[in-house]
Amino acid sequence: MSLSNTLSKKEEKRLYDIEYRRKNKEKLKLKKQAYCETDEGRAMQKRARLKRTNEHAEYIKTEKYKAWKRRYDEIYLAKKKYGEYWECMIIFKKIDNILREMFPTSYERRKARGYYRNLF
Hints:
The chain is built from 6 helices and no strands. It is mainly α. The radius of gyration is 30 Å and the shape is elongated.
């Protein structure tokens, strides 16, 4: 077989596969789903996950991920604890953090509120 003949057959096969996948999408999906439920399929998925563990370990150490995770956890916990008022709680926490930066100790915060005014 010549090289050009081999390439044209590969191209024909590629186009045929594309058409076949388009026509039999549901059938192939069910077949793949059934395979994934077998022990062999689960073992394949496990091997694929194990291949990515080092990449994942590196990724979760990045600042980008840490910032995303911090924001995600903040929203998740606020929704879980405060329900429909979760946005208000996040705004309240931001205001509280600003005030804590301005007045780091509880004594300074009480003094700013006027707590000690009537004691003396």
